Amino acid sequence: MTTQIVMDHNGDTRHWFDQGDSESLLRAEERFRHLSGLGYTAAVRSASGDPTIVHDFDPTAEETLFFPRLIGG
Q1: 73 lies in a domain?
Q2: Does residue 72 lie in a domain region?
Q3: 12-71 pLDDT, tens per residue?
Q4: How far apart are CA 70 and CA 73, in angstroms?
Q5: How many domains does the chain have?
Q6: How do strand 51-54 and strand 11-17 relate by DSSP bridges?
Q7: Rounded Cα–Cα distance for residues 19 and 8 (Å)
C-alpha cells in the first residue's frame, strides 16, 4: 500500500491507496491536486532517502508527505 501523509495543526492524517485499484488511485490523485491547490508542499523520499519536493502526482511513490505553507509572523 502507498501512503499520503498530510501534516497540519492537528498532527498528521494518513491516507492509504492501492496502486492497482483505479478508483483508489483516482482519489489519491484528486487529493494530491486538492492539497497542492491549497498551498501544501508535497515531498517524496528519493532512493537514497533524501526528501525531494514534487509538483506532480506520482502513483509509484511509496510515501508522499504534504506539509502546509509556512506563514511568518
Answers
A1: no
A2: no
A3: 999 999 999 999 999 999 999 999 999 999 999 888 888 999 999 999 999 999 999 877
A4: 10
A5: 1
A6: unpaired
A7: 25
Domain range for 34 is: 2-67
C-alpha cell of residue 56: 506532480
Write out the H or E segment, with its range, that includes residue 44: strand 41-45
Question: By C-alpha distance, which of 38, 40, 30, 39 is closest to 66?
Answer: 40
Residues 5 and 64: beta-carbon distance below 8 Å? yes
Tell me the CATH number at 53. 3.10.20
Q: Is residue 12 part of a domain?
A: yes
The secondary structure of residue 58, as a DSSP letter, is: -
| Identity at 66, one-letter amino acid code | F
